[in-house]
Specification:
Elements lengths: L8 H8 L7 E6 L7 E7 L2 E7 L9 H13 L17 E3 L2 E7 L11 H18 L12 H9 L2 H7 L3 H15 L6 E4 L8 E4 L2 E5 L6 E4 H12 L9 H14 L4 H28 L11 H12 L11
Antiparallel strand pairs: 1-2, 2-3, 3-5, 4-5, 6-9, 7-8
Helix pairs in contact: 3-7, 3-8, 4-6, 4-9, 6-9, 7-8, 7-9, 9-10
This protein binds adenosine-5'-diphosphate (ADP) and the ligand N[C@@H](CCOP(=O)(O)O)C(=O)O.
The site of ligand LJ64HWYM has 12 residues, from helix 9.
């Protein structure tokens, strides 16, 4: 479960008094998610999400994340709007953490992913990229290629306890990525973590894109690679090229990919697999036994990385 910081009734009352949202009727911790503390707060005016920012979120990045959500929502992207208090601010402190009240979006994330979900996701991602082009704030990717080796070094000593030979395998894969990671591809605002649990559907259409707390300014096609990895592998590990094709076609219907972006897709996907493998490995070896949050399996991403390193071109990933 992801409620790291408890909020007392008195603190919540005082917090909500700064907004025009009516009095609280209930406040329930949300079990899903791993990064921040989230509460479903129902007030006289309806449901809201209260987020207290924890661990990986740097307070200095919050104006970028909240400003981006505001910007995208204003351009018709179905992402939640941060609620402003009577003083015009959407960010304040609660229980010793930076906190924001966020619009509640209806819908459910898909537990069983179909090619149709991938198609809708592709189009929504392309629209998000287009809508982000005139967002004036920037934020470097704090988990980009330059950060992978330092992150690996912080957990390399324990890697072989997770899987024999893992340290050497990651060292070699990192060296290949360092030598061949593409530069000079089109950049803009990317979500950078658009996994199925961050995409809500209602009656077969996307009703919400949430969790913008890894968003940054980076290669647009890298975001597509993150989605390819997160949406187009089956639970037993096989790559589903039908889902990949629908994802890529859905994306290209709203934002065409240029030749360099298409050619780079396999290596971008390897990089995206490396990024999630490393953060999961770091969390796996640093989460104490009995902790409230169960770390995600790094080996899922080792299998994906191995597959992607064997791919001989973008066609194998569904690019016609
Ligand atoms: N705007 C929202 N509308 C509705 N539910 C939300 C919203 N934001 C978060 N949630 C709920 O909170 C859960 C965790 O949110 P998420 O942003 O993924 O947390 P974390 O950053 O901790 O991973 C989601 O799975 C969803 O159930
Ligand atoms: N998507 C990441 C973990 C981040 O979790 P989220 O709940 O913030 O999406 C992973 O799967 O490793």
């Amino acid at each position: 479960m992801a409620v790291y910081t408890e909020v007392t009734d008195d603190a919540l009352d005082a917090f909500l008094e700064q907004y025009d949202v009516g009095r609280p009727l209930s406040c329930k911790g949300i079990a899903e998610g791993v990064e921040n503390s989230n509460y479903l707060v129902t007030t006289e005016t309806g449901p809201l999400i209260l987020t207290l920012y924890e661990r990986r979120v740097q307070p200095g990045d919050l104006p970028f994340f909240l400003g981006l959500m505001d910007h995208l929502a204003g351009r018709g992207i179905p992402c939640p709007t941060p609620i402003r208090g009577r003083d015009g601010r959407s960010l304040r402190d609660l229980a010793g953490r930076p906190a924001a009240l966020i619009e509640f979006l209806p819908g459910m994330w898909p537990r069983r992913i179909t090619p149709h979900h991938c198609d809708r996701l592709g189009t929504a991602l392309a629209r998000l990229h287009e809508a982000g082009l005139d967002f004036t704030m920037t934020r470097p990717n704090s988990l980009g290629p330059a950060d992978w080796r330092p992150l690996f070094e912080r957990c390399a000593d324990h890697a072989d306890d997770v899987h024999p030979g893992l340290a050497a395998e990651l060292d070699a894969a990192l060296a290949d990525l360092e030598a061949g990671f593409p530069k000079d591809l089109p950049t803009g605002v990317i979500h950078a973590d658009l996994f199925p649990d961050n995409v809500f559907f209602l009656r077969d259409e996307i009703s919400g894109l949430i969790d913008f707390y890894f968003a940054c300014t980076d290669v647009l096609a890298y975001d597509l690679a993150v989605c390819l990895n997160a949406w187009c592998f089956e639970t037993r590990g096989e790559f589903n090229v039908t889902k990949a094709k629908r994802l890529l076609d859905g994306y290209r219907a709203a934002r065409p990919l240029d030749a360099a972006e298409m050619a780079a897709l396999p290596v971008l996907a390897q990089g995206a697999a490396m990024r999630f493998l490393l953060t999961r490995l770091y969390d796996w070896v640093n989460t104490p036994e009995g902790a409230l949050v169960k770390p995600k399996d790094p080996l899922e991403y080792l299998h994906k990385l191995r597959f992607l390193r064997g791919v001989d071109g973008p066609a194998a990933l569904g690019l016609a």
